[in-house]
Amino acid sequence: MGKTYGFFNEVLGSRMSELIHIDHADGLTRSYSAATNWGGLVFPCGQVPYQEDGSVPVGIKLQTIQCLENLSAALAHANSSIHNLLQVTVFLSDQKDFDEYDSAWREFFGTSKLPPRTTVFVSGFRGEKRIEISSIATKKEI
């Protein structure tokens, strides 16, 4: 077995998949899983800036931080961590929000271990949401 395959077997481990469900404070049942564990990878659902009471914070900075806190909680339920992110895609509704969102991102992560990130500008978010975060993480510390 070559080095590359050995790496993937080490990172992915077994190919068993597991759906992760979270009990939400609002008591509502969601029509999706919070995350899927597959081997050594974690695929959380898209994270939006809902707070525990179902409200959305005002402003892109607070929404960014809320999304990242929600992502951190979803990863914890899947036995992973925000520090194990392999790739992140962020969907923003307004290009004018980029600098403030980027500042909140750096505030949340600090200056080290910034995960790889792609930012895409989209339209069509419902309500007051201005951001959604999609990601892939590993269960092993990177």
How would you characterize the overall build of this protein?
With 142 residues, the protein is an alpha+beta fold. The protein has a single domain, classed as RutC-like (60s Ribosomal Protein L30, Chain: A, 2-Layer Sandwich). 28% of the residues lie in helices and 23% in strands. It is built from three helices and six strands; from the N terminus they run H-E-E-E-H-E-H-E-E. The protein has helices spanning 3-12, 60-77, 98-109, and strands at 17-20, 35-38, 41-44, 85-92, 117-121, 131-138. The protein has a six-stranded mixed sheet with strand order 1-2-3-6-4-5, covered by helices on one side. Strand 2 (35-38) and strand 3 form a beta hairpin. Helix 2 crosses helix 3 (98-109). The chain is globular. It starts with a helix and ends with a strand. The model is unreliable at 1-9 and 24-28 (pLDDT under 50).
CA(first)-CA(last) distance: 23 Å
Order of helices and strands: HEEEHEHEE
- Radius of gyration (Å): 16 Å
What would you call the quaternary organization? single chain
Which CATH-level-2 architecture? Answer: 2-Layer Sandwich
Percent helix, as a range, is 25-40%
Q: Name the CATH superfamily assignment.
A: RutC-like
In percent terms, what proportion of residues is strand? 15-25%
- The coarse silhouette is globular
CATH class: Alpha Beta
Structural category: alpha+beta
- Which strand order does the major sheet show? 1-2-3-6-4-5
Chain-wise SSE layout:
Elements: H1 3-12, E1 17-20, E2 35-38, E3 41-44, H2 60-77, E4 85-92, H3 98-109, E5 117-121, E6 131-138
